[in-house]
Every structure is written in C-alpha cells, then in structure tokens.
Design goal:
The structure is a homodimer of 222-residue chains. By secondary structure, chain A is mostly helical. Chain A has two domains: 46 residues, Arc Repressor Mutant, subunit A, CATH 1.10.10; 143 residues, Tetracycline Repressor, domain 2 (Orthogonal Bundle). Helices cover 69% and strands 0% of the residues of chain A. Chain A is globular. Chains A and B meet through helix 6, helix 7, helix 8, helix 9 and helix 10 of A and helix 6, helix 7, helix 8, helix 9 and helix 10 of B. Chain A binds a DNA duplex (30 and 30 nucleotides) through helix 3.
DNA sequence: TAGATGACTATACGATCGTATCTTTTTATG
DNA sequence: CATAAAAAGATACGATCGTATAGTCATCTA
C-alpha cells in the first residue's frame, strides 16, 4: 500500500492549484537545465517528479508549454531568492566603501552556484537562434539586461566600478562569474578542486576585484 | 539525373580517406555544436551533408563514434587556424608593449567569432557531468588548460598582465571573451546590435584592456 | 442524490530515433 | 577482364518520442 503520508486534501485552494503540479515544474526545470529542450522527454520528467507521464501531459498540454512554465517558475524562484543574497550589499544606503563591490560579486557568484538552473537554462537556449530564444528575450532578457546595466551604472556613480561602457562591463562581469559556474564540472575534473567551495570562490573573487580596482603590479612599475 | 559536377575521383589518396567522409564530419560538427548531442540525429546530419543516412552510419558506426570524431575534427581545425590569428601578437619576440595584450585579446575574440564551433561544443557538454565530458577532459581540456595557463604566465612575466593567480585570470579572461560569443544571439536581439562586428569587438576589447591595465578613472580620483 | 467538475490514469497512434543487415555500385589491383 | 575490397544505398527492427483520447475516481454543488 505504500505510505499515503503526504495526502493533504488541499481543499483545492492553496497557492498553486495542485501540489503535484509544482513538483512537476521543479523537476522539469532540473531536467531542462541539465539536458536541454531536445534531450528532455515527458517520461524523464515524470520519472524525476515521481508521477505518471500522463499527469505531466495533463497539467501542461504540450512540451513547449511545459518548458515555458518551468522557465517562468525558475525566474520566479530567482527573483525571490536573489534579493536575500544582495540585501547585505545594498548599494544605495550611502555606505560607499570598495569592500562592497567584492561582497556584491561574491554574493552573485554564490547565488549562481546555489541556483544554477537559470544560468544553465539561459545557456541551453542562448547559443542558437530559435523561437524559444525569441520568447525568452522578450519575456526576460530585455528586462534582465536593463536591470543589470542599472546596477552597474549605480555602482559607477558611487565610484565603486571604473567608468567604462556599462553594458560592456556588465558582459565582462557576467562572463567572468557565470563562466565559472558553467564550466565547473570541467574545472573540477581538470584541477581536481571543487569550484563551488568557500576558498575557491574567495580566491576567484579576490582576483576579479583586484582587476576591477586597478591591477597594482602592472600600474606600480610602469 | 541532377548534376554530377563534383565527381572528383580522388584516386582514393588525398588526406582524408574519402571526400564525403570529411563533408559528413564538417556537417556533424555544425549540427552537434548547434543542437547538442541529444538533439542531433543521423538523419539531420545526413541532410546537412547532403548524403544518405545509411552512409553516415557506414563511415561512423555509432552516434557516439561520430560525435567523437567530429570533436577531434573541430579541435584539429582549431589548432590549425588559431596560430594564424596569434602569430602577429607573438609574445616571445622581446617586443614588450602593452598594445600587444589588446591585440592578443582581440585576435582570440575574433577567432572565437569566426570559429564558434569549439566553444559551443565545449559548452554543450560542460555544464552536465557525462561520459562524454570525461572523455573531453582527458582528451582535450587538460591540455588546453595547461596551454592557456602557460600563455597567461608568459604574459605576466613580461609585465603585460597583472600578477594574480594565473588560473583565475585565465578563467576570468576566458569567461569575458567566450561569454560574449555564447550569448551573442541574445545580445543581438536585446541590444539590436550585432556583437560580431569590428566596432563592437573593438569597443568590448577596449573596455576589457582598460580593466586589465588598471582602471584609470577609479584609481585616478581615489 | 444526480450531475458536473477537476485530478489522475491507461492506452494507442504515427513519427522518428539508433542500429543492424543486406544489396548494389564504384574503385583498385591482378 | 576478373575479382576483391571499399563506398554507397535500401530496408527493417525495436524502442522511444510527443500527442491524442477515453476512462476512473474523488470532490463539490444544486
């Protein structure tokens, strides 16, 4: 009979219509982020969510719809979790010290390691034009780019970042941080060191901040 | 009857055993880089190479073998093409000027835009552990990482790059450069500007070098 | 209590996938 | 020209894919 523990009639109310529905969404986000759109099947997602394949197709009529909803779910999770990482580095409280940039970068990197889904989902669709990419651009990326640029410009106004082209700087910083997470499985195998660890992250951020605040050793003897 | 124009008996010699074989390899590299391993099928590759599906399976017995050989092919192309981009920036001819770092970065970025296959193939397999990733690590990435680190250290010895952790700096530079290529389709849609253009690349490299050589605007008034 | 609604399940269809086997054509060599 | 090997093509198989449809069961409402 198995255990019928988490029965929970839910009386149809709650936030999400069904508890199993959001469990499927979470599993779908994991599988999509890991295997990509083409490599993902209803069967795999159903297995990961421990439900029948028919149920997946019942809640989300098509694979495309399921993908869209799981993307929405991931971005929502991101927007809920990210502020908690950034609140201790608030840029607009007048406390201008350079240490804040280090903390900002570190928190973003740590967040990316803790929630790799949205980065992986982004890269899964980024490299190749497709209707899905167009949808993501209109739905999320335009907004994300604008927000990122605003953060950079705010930091620049407070002399926390060098006053170069904000969009370029956003790309360079995003690249330097996100790249580390995306090639982490490679780095781990090549270097024999887990990139997702306090000391590795601290060292990496330290190097990055050292560059951002003017590389001393090259400016010193020139 | 169609056109039997490119008949070319090849007399079996040439470099590759068959001319159609390498045509399949090139097509396979394209499709694998674009769609990933799971999203790629024999049929798609055959169609891209304008041959029958059976022929693909004849030359490369399995999908895994075809993938491996196409990876080898791409890395070989890369190693043949890359020196032509770097030769005009040779680091070890005693000509130590800072302009050389800019040229080095620019050439690497330009090369990546011209030959996006190897970057995309890398990212296709990088984010998720798999037997294919293990194989790539042992076959290519360990060597690539070592070479990259050596280049960084050489530049550091000549005071062309700040003397921070070489592996971290390699990751930061790789990330900043490769990220741009990987999210180019996104950037193009969001910014309405093609990242693969002289002026965009120049501007981006300029910003990057500005950081590498000590951000002036922040060090100036501190 | 009868009916309607929503959550969930079972099953089947057509297409495509990777692979295996077989036949035909082309090429090289005696 | 004869013959063997290699290249190229044709076909079929089991499996899995996305999707469609019909059915079961519990809950809610009139």
């Amino acid at each position: 009979m198995k255990t019928a523990d988490q029965k929970m009639p839910t009386t149809h109310g709650e936030d999400e219509s069904s508890s199993r529905r959001s469990k499927i969404l979470a599993a779908a986000a994991d599988v999509f982020a890991q295997q990509g759109f083409d490599g993902t099947s209803f069967g795999t997602i159903a297995q990961a969510a421990d439900v029948k394949k028919s149920l997946v197709q019942y809640h989300f009529k098509s694979k495309e719809k399921l993908w869209q909803e799981s993307i929405h779910w991931v971005w929502k999770q991101r927007d809920q979790a990210l502020p908690k990482y950034l609140q201790r580095t608030s840029l607009n409280d007048g406390n201008n010290n350079a240490q804040m940039v280090r903390e900002l970068c570190k928190q973003i990197l740590q967040f990316t390691f803790d929630h790799p889904q949205w980065v992986k989902l982004m890269f899964q669709e980024a490299s190749t034009p497709s209707p899905r990419l167009d949808w993501m651009v209109e739905t999320f990326f335009k907004k994300d780019f604008a927000n990122g640029k605003a953060v950079i410009e705010l930091a620049q106004q407070q002399n926390l970042l060098p006053k170069v082209d904000a969009m370029d700087l956003l790309h360079i910083l995003s690249g330097a941080l996100i790249y580390l997470v995306n090639v982490a499985p490679i780095s781990q195998r090549v270097l024999g060191e887990n990139p997702n660890s306090e000391q590795y992250i601290d060292r990496h951020i330290n190097t990055l901040v050292c560059l951002l605040q003017g590389a001393p050793s090259i400016t010193a003897n020139s």
